[in-house]
Amino acid sequence: MTRWWKGSLAALAIMALCAVALTSTATAQPSETAAASGPAAARTLNIYGMGGRDDVAQGRLDIADRVIEAAGHSVSNPVGAFNDQAFLARLAARDIPDLVYMDRNNVGTYAARNALLPLANCIRSESIDRRMYRQAALASVTYKGQLYALPEFTNQITLIVNNDVARAAGVAVADIQTTNLVKLRQANKKMLRAEGGRVTRIGVDPKLPEFFPLWVKRYGKDLISKDGLKAQLNSREAVAALNYAHSLIRDHGGWDRFKAYRDTLDYFGAVNPMSGNQMGATPFESFWYNVLAEGRPVDITAKFFTNQRGGPITMLSGSGWAIPRGAADADLACKYMKSMTAVNTWRAVAKTRFDLRKRQGRAFTGLYTANTQADVKIFEDIYQRTGTKQFDDAVTLLVRAPRYGFAIPLSPASAEFRQAWIDGVTRVLEGRQTPRQALDQAQREAQAAIDKAK
Amino acid sequence: MASAAATSNAAPGPQSRARRWFSGFRERETWYAYAFILPWVIGFLLLTAYPMFASLYYSFTNYGIEQVAGFAPTERVGLANYRELLDDPRVQTSLTNTFIYTVMSVPAKMMVALGLALILARIVFAAGFFRTVFYLPDITPPVAIGILILVLFNGSFGIVNDVLGFFGIPGPFWTTDPDWIKPSLAIMSIWTVGGTMVIYLAALKAVPAHLYEAASMDGAGPWRRFFNVTLPMISPALFFTFIVLTIHGLQTFNEVYTAYFGEGQTGAEDPDAALMNVVYLFRQAFEFFNIGFASAMAWLLFVVIMIVTAVQFLVSRRLVFYQGAQK
Fold this sequence. Notes:
The complex is a heterodimer. By secondary structure, chain A is α/β, with parallel strands linked by helices. Chain A has helices at about 5-35, 55-70, 85-90, 105-110, 120-125, 135-140, 165-170, 180-190, 210-220, 235-250, 255-260, 290-295, 330-340, 345-360, 370-380, 390-400, 415-430, 435-454, and strands at about 45-50, 75, 100-105, 140-145, 145, 150, 155-160, 195, 200-205, 280-285, 300-305, 305, 310-315, 320, 405.
């Protein structure tokens, strides 16, 4: 045998050994995990989907980590937002996380496909009091009567009016509301500014298509039935809502001009649409008040988005914690999510943030969670009026708002359902279809997707 | 003698070819060569061939998230996914969009790349610097290009319309008007002509100078020399880039997805006019979890690309000139 042949054989043998070693490592993992998953052994809780971490998120993670560590276990929680593709890859590789943090809109799609565990056992074993969570938030993570996630933060939508713009346009702030739509449209026309074929100020931004469900609710209707199985996208109320909200955009000269201008706005900068007087009024999520409080001085009024009878309504959204089916440590995951959403945890981080803001000389505008009791504690025990009337009024409004909240019920085809109405609204905005045609098509598409998935 | 020569020139038969292939393994260099390409072969088999054939299988199944996770068995559904392709109007929309975009972007990229290459071929001073400058945009991340599209082509405040306005031309609303979304994407695709330009430059440098001298002596002007000497001589490079850019155009995804469908978009940026085939495929697979259907879409696109490429090869026979090739 020549030296070359000997060398070749040795190389092949090493490759074969590597392959065997890799295979045995891979096959050993489950058995080792299984051995380590006994009740007495230290385990590692694997968490996925927790992306950006500010002081509030990190503070709660620290508290929840300590709960797990006190039981003799550890936590692995790499930074990274939830991503469908990455989660799918982990499921395919049987590298199933024990706990995931995801948008509540996504829960239905995964729950309907049996990728999440119902939390009935978790609620029972950890004695979690469901009553402390907001009903609308719970509804947004309930599918076919089963709870699939614990809701965490809550974003509620209120109407934010730019007093400077209203004043300059000769519009009474009281007229900027969503009950008397004639007055709102008049206010829109007075506040908007268009020069030389360009929009240079938005009057009222209806936030289409994303807030379309809120406009439909204003007319007293939901986009989908409570059980999430029947789309109601082409109801008379939905058509009327789309027609009206679109009219606010048409007043600006059409979607092209409106969006071209809106795309240039910096919503999170010091010079934002309110401080830069680039917008008269808009419904917006609650987190924006923090941005407005920190940017260049603004003069705003926070108002409820109201229905046609004048009653306040708000659309709730947010994130939640869920346990994937196949999780190795569902019991630890349950403990962890209970701790992350507990009243004491929220209160502790709110106090820390309040102290931090006080040291920095900045305003604390509250935390808005899906936990009713936590919100009350934070508001009563920690929150102090900032001394800036407009933001103090806004906080008072935001604390009250969630009780008027609704969330879009989960459906087995949540993603397709959402896409159907967004596409429908976009077709109207682009002028390709009338509201009736667009919503009829959206209804057919959404119902077909639901029927296929259920 | 003549017959002996004819025999030796004849193409080797299948047996002799196989024997020659096997006999190559007596040489140590052959083993080295295979050892060197082995990593690529393994990568190709595991990361390309296996997923391709797996997707072919999945295209005939109900493969979805439950099957991915092993919670439910994968069931064969026959041709149901392919039938659904015909029923779904968005598949047709996405294919049409992709074709229109490809038809607009490929000639535009080729012409701009050739123009730049012709300029660079004439530059003597700091040629390397200019080559680098023209190539630099090619290394821009596609995500950045996607965002640039929205900034540059903003209908009211974008630079493109500002430039058009300077010449008295009112610019359209590129990013919101369905009629102008694909043209804006095609124009933006020119941003990445660097690679194509380098290929053309190499081809231009390889054109023998004596051909130009001969043409000049025959009285041919610059245009005549370009059409009768340059173009035929670089036609293999043009054909190669034509094929590659067409395939790339038919598979376009990153820039379009970032600009109109990506994370952080509110949904208002989901116009049908920007729905390319691979974008729709991605959404079906990773947003709606219809992986079997998405696999069928992938194979439909594969067949389309094969047909288009075959047509291109057929047409090229009359148009591409290979030096030294027997006609």
